[in-house]
Amino acid sequence: MASSYMPRLYQLRGVSSALKRVHLPCTHRATPCLNKRFASTEPEPIATITKKNKKSPLRKFIFRSSIAFVLFGGYLYFTDTRASAHRYIAVPIIRWLFPDAEDAHHAGVAALRELYKFGLHFRERSSPDLGGKLATQVFGYTLSNPIGISGGLDKHAEIPDPLFALGAAVVEVGGTTPLPQDGNPKPRVFRIVSQSGMINRYGLNSKGADHMAKVLKQRVREFAYANGYGYSDAGEERVLNGEAGVPPGSLNEGKLLAVQVAKNKVTPESDIAAVTRDYVYCVDRVAPYADIVVVNVSSPNTPGLRGLQAAGPLTEILKGVVGAAKRIDRKTKPFVMVKVSPDEDSEEQVDGICHAVRESGVDGVIVGNTTNRRPEPLPYRYPLSSKEEQTMTETGGYSGPQLFERTVALVSRYKQKLSDAGSQKTIFASGGITNGKQAQAVLDAGASVAMMYTAITFGGIGTVTRVKNELRQERSL
Ligand SMILES: Cc1cc2nc3c(=O)[nH]c(=O)nc-3n(C[C@H](O)[C@H](O)[C@H](O)COP(=O)(O)O)c2cc1C
């Protein structure tokens, strides 16, 4: 009975599991047989199976090479920003895995950070900027392209390099505040999927300017070490003073790093001297590692912050920041921009901001930020689901494609007003940009850089590459 049962068992469960489960006949054991019951068992079934399972070296080689080839091909595909799987597979999966948009944000940042550490990060494998077709001049630098990533996506400066690798020529990290602060209670970020839009009321959650300065300093040190300047104060100084031939903030040729600064929620907005001290504190810490310092007076989620855009207070704050940026101990000083709201758009308000920009010596304006308004759905009269109708009533700043028309109009107005007065100020556009045609439109309206945030969360890590491709097509029409 035992001998007729054994071969079937081997075939069914495989040799190794069978070895564990039944007493083996002695003929198949390396050690002498102690089991008298199997002493006379026939060897034939094992021999047959061993023969079957044994692969020739050539077959083994082909099998292993095929696996290696598939893995390597998969790696090349998934880390290439041109892969449409990011947009059509990864983004929906992330939304499904993380119903809370903030959790998805954290997971995305962690993934970008960790993959970069191991050199497995997403990147532009086609080097689309090499032809120079999208090259543009900003603050005396030749940027490889005019596309940027807006503030808030990398709040704690954890992933500037992975974001540069996605193809952006400008990456804005922050905003950071002098003291760490938690921001508003969760949930505080909401998706309106049918509109590819978002509402957020993060409330400038920040680990604080000292923390951000530490992270950025470490990044410069690692760069200095990797490029032969040593892991020391002297090495850091040499890189920051431009000896490495790259901008001191981005550490990437043809790219610029903007660092955004803001005030703490607890600092009373009525005390302009205290508010100015908040911004200056941040500038003193982080500006040595920035190509551009961005002053955030336009987040809708810090009570009273937007009130600081009135001409008087804004002039004082910006003067303080410009002074602090000029005092930075570095050969080239960081440029200063102010990020303004799309909602403070009356003639008087825009005039007031332009006045403050000219008076203070600020170098440029980022137009704009999220809106407190709730724009009409797109396409016109699109019926939102009742759940999305409900989401639209959440408090916070709205972002997404519906902002675009307002952004173009506002960029034109700022351009005109700032040029009228004879001051050449640089403008970056932020708000609702999702494709190359729109990027070209804001550039035509007077912006030097078209920045994106929400489009990346809905379009995935290939968004910058796609928009640049579309931009190139626009230009060759
Ligand atoms: C979740 C989220 C967080 C943001 N955080 C910041 C921030 O910390 N500082 C800031 O100036 N803007 C912040 N923004 C605004 C964006 O930088 C951008 O100006 C705005 O979303 C409009 O552009 P978009 O339509 O391309 O998203 C945030 C936007 C979103 C959606």
UniProtKB/TrEMBL annotation:
Its cofactor is FMN. GO terms for biological process: 'de novo' pyrimidine nucleobase biosynthetic process; 'de novo' UMP biosynthetic process. Residues 134-473 form the Dihydroorotate dehydrogenase catalytic domain. SUPFAM superfamilies: FMN-linked oxidoreductases (SSF51395). Pathway: Pyrimidine metabolism; UMP biosynthesis via de novo pathway; orotate from (S)-dihydroorotate (quinone route): step 1/1. The keyword Membrane applies. Gene3D superfamilies: Aldolase class I. The keyword Transcription regulation does not apply. It catalyses: (S)-dihydroorotate + a quinone = orotate + a quinol. Keywords: Flavoprotein, FMN, Membrane, Oxidoreductase, Transmembrane, Transmembrane helix. It holds the Pfam family DHO_dh. Its EC number is 1.3.5.2. One of its GO terms (molecular function) is dihydroorotate dehydrogenase (quinone) activity. It is found in: Membrane. GO terms for cellular component: mitochondrial inner membrane. The chain crosses the membrane at residues 61-78. It is an enzyme of class 1 (oxidoreductase). Belongs to the dihydroorotate dehydrogenase family. Type 2 subfamily. This is Dihydroorotate dehydrogenase (quinone), mitochondrial.
